[in-house]
Amino acid sequence: MSAGECPFGAKVVDYFDHNSREYVDKRHAWYQQIRRDIGPVFWSPNYGGYWVVIGFAELEAAARDWETFSSKHVLDADGRARPLDGLRYEGLFVPPRPYSSILLEEDPPAWERSRQALAATFSLPAAERWRGRLQDLVDACLDRKIESGAIDFAKDISNIVPAILSLELAGVPTDHYQLVARNHHLTSHIPAGSPQLLELADDLAFERAQVVKAVEDHKTGERGRDVISVLLNARDKGTADFTDDEILALANLVIGAGIDTTASVLCNALQILTKRPDLRKTLMEDPSLTVTAFEEFLRISAPTQGLCRTVTRDVELGGQNLRRGDRVMLCFAAACRDPREFDKAEEVVLERKPNLHVALGSGTHRCLGQFYARLEFETILNTVLRRMPDFQVDLDAVKSFENVGVVTGFTSVPATFTPGAKLGVDPKVPGFFAGA
Fold this sequence. Notes:
This protein is an alpha+beta fold. Helices cover 44% and strands 9% of the residues. The strands form four sheets. It has a five-stranded mixed beta sheet with strand order 1-2-8-5-3.
């Protein structure tokens, strides 16, 4: 039997398609039913067939065993999977994409090279150095809306702040932050092969050109604490041998990875706080609780739904026999609601301890930017609660992504509040006030 055919004895869920519209609306109900009727691991016949892991313990086991569950994506010059050691390594996505991502779609030892070079830049102390800058960005965004009594939390802050911060962290000018935010939101929820991706080609090419120029400018210009500077300094010192293309790829990764995930958690949290005024009151009375609240909002509304692996050897997982060459999707969002691991798994419990969720991944590929994500969430939420304490999201008008097979998110989260006063913060971002 060849990989892709339904394995003998597999527990099959025919309707499971993570790229479908039904998945957007019904995924949590699906997971509850599948756990009850099928189990923690099952087979979907879509896209040539792939395994799906929704159990916490099973997902943890797979995520920590990179030698058996590989993230590698090996392509030929035409963007098609190139066999290696008799296997087709197709990376993190089902269906596979015609390009590979440095660091994300690598296994050790190749993975270690980029991760180690960026470790200091993405440490907790490094993230904390951005706190003041982040506060200015948040206050400036709220200043643009504070006098009106109306805001769209997706369009007016959660899409903007992560985009600007990610560009600055990468070392790229922020002049085109609105275009970058739009590009990455659309590419996050447009299915592979969609004609809409072709429509974005010119904008994506322009964005890439800006990163190329930033790399060139850094070679002779002033350097700082950004990713491009760090990688060029390492090359100049002889401690790393990154090519220009690799530096470009890592800068693009930092930009793209930092936008949608943080925005998704924040927008979900603001909706939950509209539904649960008791939770809002608790956080307003003790802002320090935002730290633990972030973990619970992450768990209950994990932005990354699932990422895939290629099975490198025959292995048993969750009572199912996975074969060498099979594809398997690790559903982080589903595992975060596994009642075997979390008491009251479908409820928000701000004081939940321990809260060892997998919303930021697990094992080798745990999120590199986790400290920045926490800092952004904490700063934005506390500032909104302080400056717009009575906000009410119009829950009936919220618009989610049309496709959430990889990352959940929102195109619109409108809200109203009692108008307040501007602080007069200038974020020093070109075109910022023109975009109000």
